[in-house]
Every structure is written in C-alpha cells, then in structure tokens.
Write a sequence for this structure.
C-alpha cells in the first residue's frame, strides 16, 4: 500500500482549558490522526490477512509522525496513546485486527520516542459517520491512572462499505483535573 491509496486523512485536536468551572493550569492535549483506506478484502473471505500487517505499520507510523508534527512537540513529550479502526460493512472485524495488531505498534512507538506498554485499541464494523471511542493509556506505564482516558472521532463520509477508517490517538498531560490515586 502506498499513501496515495489513502482516500482521506483527518486530524482532530482537543485541548481542555477549563473543567468543572476550574481553570486547568496546563491544558492537556489529545490528537487523533485518522486515515480512510480501501479495504482490499471487502466482500471476500481470505485466509491470509498478512498484506494488511504492513499497511497497518505504514499508516500507523505516518499518522503518529504527523500528529507529533502538528502538535509541534518532541516525540518524548507524548505521554499516552491509543488506536482504533472501523471496518466498513463489506469487511470483517478481523481486517481491523490485522491492521492494528501485528506491526502497527513499532512505527508508532518510534514516532513518540518510546512506548514500553501496549497500545490499547478498539475495533468495530460501521458505516459512514460511525463513532469510534479509543482508549488511551500512558505509553510507558499502562497502570498510571492519570492517563487512563479515551477520545473519539467520527468522519461523516467514512468508512464506506468497502473502506476502513484507521486511527491513532496521542496525548500529553492525561485527564484535565487528574486526582485519582490507587490505594
């Protein structure tokens, strides 16, 4: 797959400056990078989904690098991450798994300077305008409560039946007024 095979790329930034009527000293940031691609396996059962492994790596790396660039930060400034995919109705959930799991993580970790823990994910089948809510955790400590969060995206014309929307989300700062500590 070449990036020229991508139909659309969307970036969404979220900064929280005020929460519960309280000013947030350092506004946390979340960014989502999403790409809409043709599903080469739409309407076809295929035993070997390995061709999607490299597509996931290429798209994941591209989106993560662009997100870091858009935020104008150093890769190590990114503290949390997540990922997700919506497969159009002519595909199957396994297509999302093939994109997100085998090779997606390494290029994302490279783009954000590290990442000792798994990149949490979600996947679903849906049509244009479907919402995907992606979990986010600290990239180096999945059990850091301050960074257990989520973010969401919907693209009005994606995914079409024979497409897949694939997304990565990156964060700085965790939740706005974090104060939940484990016992």
């Amino acid at each position: 797959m070449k990036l020229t095979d991508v139909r659309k790329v969307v970036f969404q930034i979220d900064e929280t400056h005020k929460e519960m009527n309280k000013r947030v000293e350092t506004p946390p940031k979340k960014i989502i990078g999403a790409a809409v691609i043709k599903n080469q396996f739409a309407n076809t059962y295929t035993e070997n989904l390995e061709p999607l492994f490299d597509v996931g790596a290429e798209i994941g790396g591209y989106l993560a690098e662009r997100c870091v660039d858009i935020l104008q930060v150093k890769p190590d400034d990114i503290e949390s991450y997540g990922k997700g995919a919506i497969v159009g109705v002519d595909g199957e959930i396994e297509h999302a798994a093939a994109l997100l799991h085998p090779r997606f993580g390494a290029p994302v970790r490279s783009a954000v300077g590290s990442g000792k823990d798994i990149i949490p994910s979600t996947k679903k089948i849906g049509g244009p305008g479907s919402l995907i809510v992606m979990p986010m955790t600290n990239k180096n400590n999945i059990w850091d409560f301050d960074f257990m969060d989520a973010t969401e995206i919907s693209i009005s014309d994606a995914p079409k039946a024979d497409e897949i929307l694939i997304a990565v989300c990156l964060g700085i700062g965790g939740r706005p007024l974090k104060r939940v500590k484990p016992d």
Notes: The domain at 3-172 is CATH 3.30.1330.110 (60s Ribosomal Protein L30; Chain: A;). Strands lie at 6-15, 18-19, 22-23, 29-38, 80-87, 121-125, 131-138, 149-154, 163-172.
